[in-house]
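To fix ideas, we quote verbatim a fold written out as tokens:
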Amino acid sequence: MIDNNESQTPSDSTAIPSAEPPATSPAPAGPVSGDGALDRLIGIFSAPGATFERIVARPSWALPFFLLVVAVGAAGFSVFSRVDDREMEQSLRKTMAEQAANLPSEQIDRIIPFQIKMMKITQTYGSIASISIYALIGVLFYWAIFRAFGANATFGQTFSVFIWGSVPMALKALIAIPVSLMRESIAFSESMTVVRANASFLVDPSSGGSKFLYGFLVALDLFAIWVLVLRLSGMRKLPGVSKNLATTVAVIAFVIYVLMAANNASKMV
């Protein structure tokens, strides 16, 4: 006679399901899909906040730096190839006469041609050096202050945000190329206003208007303000950098830039 209790005992061969899911290997680390250099370039214009978050997470700078160098160099060549050397000489001679009244005319005659030559070389072929120096000084300014206030943002993160935030200046340079090529000649005093994205037309230094105010309006153009807005957005994404700190440092750096650019522009009038 078969025991009913034994007939109802589950078989030893029956597998009991495990409550834990099978172990999976972690996803390989790497760039997020849709986060390439071109994606970031588009994102700087369409969605800067989210783009800067990815830039801070995975810093990069090669593409925007390349664009800045090529665009600024090409714009410098196209503009200064149409600037009249005689008009440039008159402007430089007038500036030197105001700043160095005791300098002998013979010495001025020797200095002016050299200045013209060096200015054209710098504007055309010195874009790599000038942009590198500008970026290095600017990034060191931001990074040193951030670190002084306890932020743990790395130099690479700060450098990447700074360079990507400068992309509108490359766009301005690219616009300047066809605009300058459509003109037969460009006055030396207009070389900084080929792309008229400012209110410098409100002041006429040739008619007694303030040269510095004219230079200030030249420097305070829409592209410079655009760069400020982008850098504000990017610096706020850096680890340990508060919104107030990022805003304060960015505004101070912007004021310094505008004052320096205004001084340079006023000397070219």
Observations:
- Residues 212 and 266 are 5 Å apart (CA to CA).
- The chain has twelve helices and no strands.
- The two ends are 118 Å apart (CA to CA).
